Amino acid sequence: MRMRAIFLTGLLLISIGAAQAADPRYPDWPCVQAKVPEISLAAVWAGPPIDDVANAWKDDPEIAALVEQLAARRVPVEQAQKSVTAFLARSPDKAKAGRLIFAGLFDNLNAQRSTVLNGLERVTRKQREAVEKIRADSVALQSLQAAPTPDQAKLDELNNQVLWEARIFEDRRRVVAFVCEVPTIIDQRLFALSRVIQQEME
User: Which residues contact 176 (CB under 8 A, 6 or more apart)?
Assistant: First the structure.
């Protein structure tokens, strides 16, 4: 059991050493996907300029409520697209309403992405701290084992602690792998809704 803890620790340290940041500009970025700090307007919007309505969508309670609904990832994209179509179909000024909706989505989803990106980098820093703790505890465990008369109770306690720390590290690593997909999902959502808005405005 104690050898298993040391073996697992070795694997974790090797994995951390191999997982260096691909882009030196973002040393805490843990994903294989390149870090794109924010969505480019030109990449998702080919409609009329939105500079003059960048914040005006917040002043329209109906549009603000719609934007919140459309931006929620729990709402399927297909359902969100139908909501856009229905809203614009009854709007007296599709061009203005479409621009307001898109401006709200662009603002909201970029904010969501920033939260996710910051969270991923925060977890990376925690993982580094965890590795240092695991390394220190593993060294202490080996020292206890090498003692002429090892304290069995302390050995068992420290061994269990290392195994627990390794399990938390691995759980976080799996969560990070899943969350790394979220920025792309947000990008795709904004692009899909943008396309529907522009089609309806035309």
Answer: 30, 31, 120, 123, 124, 127
